[in-house]
Write a structure and sequence with these properties.
single chain; 20 strands; 8 helices; 3 domains; four-stranded antiparallel β-sheet; Chloramphenicol Acetyltransferase; alpha+beta; Dihydrolipoamide Transferase; OB fold (Dihydrolipoamide Acetyltransferase, E2P)
Length: 407
């Protein structure tokens, strides 16, 4: 029996998703777990795996299409099986169609034929996202031929129209292009908007401090030695240890473990630690919930799991909401950054930037000087929520936790 491939519902607020790329073609053999397609919500990008083994009998939406959640996007089965009953655009009786939950039904009114998601604007069929894009870019789409289902105009059509309607490259001698342009991805737009809003709507200030990391480096070497003898050991990184120290400091200075709103501050009793992760789709900040309840080994596992889920596109949208974490860590040490000013992920009130390790001259006693490895720490905080004194004491506590670390 054929199996429907359904567009997942990623979070309670997500009603539609945009197919960005198909990795399998109609007629191609697929196995359980194969990546069929990538799709975007308004918050992140994800991959959709095959739920069954067989032949990809049909696909119902092309790349760029905006698809309601819980609607069939494809069907997998045996060669020769019919697919009309699975097609959401078909008038044939539905078979094995997705069960539509009440909240989606209320938002869409009806998913039969996708009519609730086709906007009748003087008989022009255009998706909500495509219409918003056209309005934002000031484009007249009345004569545009859509490439979506039933000729509907979709986001890809607007992007192509925009690219063709402006000067994309500037010609120079020998017909070489001086520059090229491309539209921003959905994720890039979200990051851009969040960062601009953060700087525009808060009073951000950054303090810098260094911490002696000899204890961390000694612990790291012990871990490496254990790994060489037993590969099953958890590989605890320097970043894991620093996050462990930050959590301890947050428990002592809970005012930094807060969300700031216009008329009140919400201070959390648990630490939901956010970790900035660089992915091919853009920067994501997944939250590790109740991180203060984890020991170092479990914390390390959870941090790695969250980072890998972001890179694979399988992270839950609920964990990358700006209010999912209570405090964020951004580590640029591997890139050789010695000092930087991280931007707060509002409504959080602070973020710690972790920098590279540099050997600094230090008085070792009796006027004897030597070089000691120091790691740079850059704390950005919202001055509306925290004053300079408490912020400095909090940063100093992180430094002391790092220097007192024992493994």
């Amino acid at each position: 029996m054929a199996t429907a491939v359904i567009m997942p519902k990623q979070g309670q607020s997500v009603e539609t998703c945009i197919i960005t790329k198909w990795f399998k073609s109609k007629g191609e053999k697929v196995s359980v777990g194969d990546i069929l397609l990538s799709y975007e919500t308004d918050k992140a990008s994800f991959d959709l795996e095959s739920p069954a083994e067989g032949i990809l009998l049909d696909v119902f939406f092309s790349e760029g299409a905006e698809v309601p959640v819980l609607v069939n996007v494809a069907v997998i089965g045996k060669s020769g099986e019919t697919t009309d009953s699975f097609n959401p655009n078909s008038s044939a009786p539905r078979a094995s169609m997705a069960i539509i939950t009440s909240d989606v039904r209320e938002a869409s009114q009806s998913v039969v034929g996708l009519k609730a998601f086709d906007i009748e604007d003087n008989k022009i069929r255009i998706s909500p996202r495509a219409k918003r894009m056209a309005e934002d870019k000031g484009l007249n789409y009345t004569d545009l031929q859509g490439s979506g289902p039933n000729g509907r105009i979709i986001a890809r059509d607007i992007e192509r129209f925009h690219e063709e309607g402006i000067s994309v490259t500037k010609a120079v001698k020998n017909d070489e292009a001086e520059y090229s342009e491309k539209p921003l991805s959905n994720v890039r737009k979200l990051i851009s908007g969040a960062m601009h809003s953060s700087l525009q709507n808060s009073a951000q200030l950054t303090h810098h401090m260094g911490a002696d990391v000899r204890s961390l480096l000694e612990a790291r070497q012990k871990i490496k030695n254990k790994l060489s003898a037993d590969k099953s050991q958890q590989d605890i990184t320097l970043n894991d240890m620093i996050c462990w120290c930050i959590i301890k400091a947050l428990l002592k200075f809970p005012e930094a473990n807060s969300h700031f709103f216009d008329d009140h501050i919400k201070t959390f009793h648990k630490v939901h630690l956010g970790l900035a992760v660089d992915t091919t789709r853009g920067l994501m900040v997944p939250a590790v919930k109740n991180a203060n309840d984890l020991d170092l080994v479990k914390l390390s596992k959870e941090l790695k799991s969250a980072a890998e889920a972001c890179k694979k596109g399988s992270i839950s949208p609920e964990l990358i909401q700006s209010d999912a974490a209570t405090f964020t860590v951004s580590n640029l040490g591997n890139y050789g950054v010695e000092m930087f000013t991280p931007v707060i992920n509002l409504p959080q009130v602070a973020i710690l930037g972790v920098c590279s390790i540099i050997n600094r001259p230090v008085n070792l006693g009796n006027n004897t000087f030597g070089f000691v490895p120091y790691i740079g720490l850059s704390l950005t905080y919202d001055h509306r929520a925290i004053d300079g004194g408490p912020a400095t004491l909090f940063l100093k506590e992180i430094k002391e936790q790092i220097e007192a670390f024992r493994y």
